[in-house]
Structures are given as structure tokens and as C-alpha cells.
Amino acid sequence: MELKQQFLDLEKNRRTIYDLGKDVSFSQDDLYTYIKELIKYTPSAFNGQTVRAVVLFDENHDKLWDIVEDALREKVPANGFLRTKAKISTFRDAYASILFFTDMDKVKELQGQFKTYQYEMYNWSEEGQGNAQFAVWTGLEENGLGVNIQHYDPLINAQVASTFDIPDNWQLRAEMNFGSVNTPAGKKDFMDDSKRFKEFK
């Protein structure tokens, strides 16, 4: 019997795309519902469901990258800021963005509920983040959309929370952009399998 390859093919197609555009034919309502479902059905330790997400379209998407640009303007030396600004502009050119958060109150609740594993609960919530981000990324790619993911936390956390009315117990973990693919990803290199994998029969 041959192993099915459909999921592996989807995984292979999931790539980081930086040159994104706004030529997206799906409705925002359908995209929002799809993203929610992808996250809802992502596995998490003890079914803890610690991942939270905010999807930003139109001017709200732009606001996110305005926040990032303003925050970096204060941190990046003036002689290097033009390059930074140009990079942020490419994120703003995407169709929309998704903010991924961890609900720290839920993590603490799980720590109290499963005391034997309390010191692992945050680590496992990070695994949940990785699972959710991978699921959304792959699902969007399956529908012909390009995706990249950024990490400007904690630099932008306070302003993001204020602008988008984020609860205090939600900890920002990543910012994901998606949109139409203007330029496909290049070739991906892999390290030697012998340095990553072992098999015992």
C-alpha cells in the first residue's frame, strides 16, 4: 500500500512569500471564517485552546504596519531607517494580516488544573502557536495565497493592545501577512538528513 502524499504536497508548497499584493478574490467574511476554523481544529495540549487570533483587513491592516514603522523609527539608527521603512512597506502591501496571541490566563488555568505539568504549560502553549500558525499558513497557501510571518513583539505590544482593544491577558506572539503572490519563493535549501534524523528498527 502506498502512503498518501496530498498533505506532504501541501506542506512542500507552503513557503515564505515576501512580495504580496491585494489581488484576492475571496470575501473577507469567508477568509475570516476559514481562518477561525483552521485554528479551532488545531491540536493543543490537553485541548487547552490557548491560541487567540485577530484578523486585520483594509485600514486596520495598514494601522498594524504604521504601528510597527513608528516603533522601529525610534529604535533604528536614522541612516538605516529608509531600508527598514521599505521592508515594512512590503508588509503593508499585503492584503491582510493576522495577529496571533497566547491567552496567559488560560495558560495559568491549565497550570493550576494539571499541577504535575505546570512548568511545561507555557512551552506547550508555544507548541499550540506553532501548530496554529502552520495550519493557517498551509491552508491559505492551499487556496493560492502567499504568506509571511513576522515577530515584532514585544516592541509593538502596548500600541497593538490599545489600538485593537486586546485583553491584557493576551500575549502577542506573531504577525502573519497574506495576499496574492506577486513573486514566488525561490529554491529552498535543506541540511543533510543524517544531521537531523535517526531511525531504529
From TrEMBL:
Any one GO molecular-function label of the UniProt entry: oxidoreductase activity
Segments forming domain Nitroreductase: 12-179
Location in or out of the cell: Cytoplasm
Example GO biological process: cellular response to oxidative stress
Pfam families: Nitroreductase
Top-level taxon of the source organism: Bacteria
Cross-referenced Gene3D superfamilies: NADH Oxidase
Broad class of the protein's primary localization: cytoplasm
One cellular component (GO) term of this entry: cytoplasm
UniProt keywords, alphabetically: Cytoplasm, Oxidoreductase
Name this protein carries in UniProt: Nitroreductase family protein
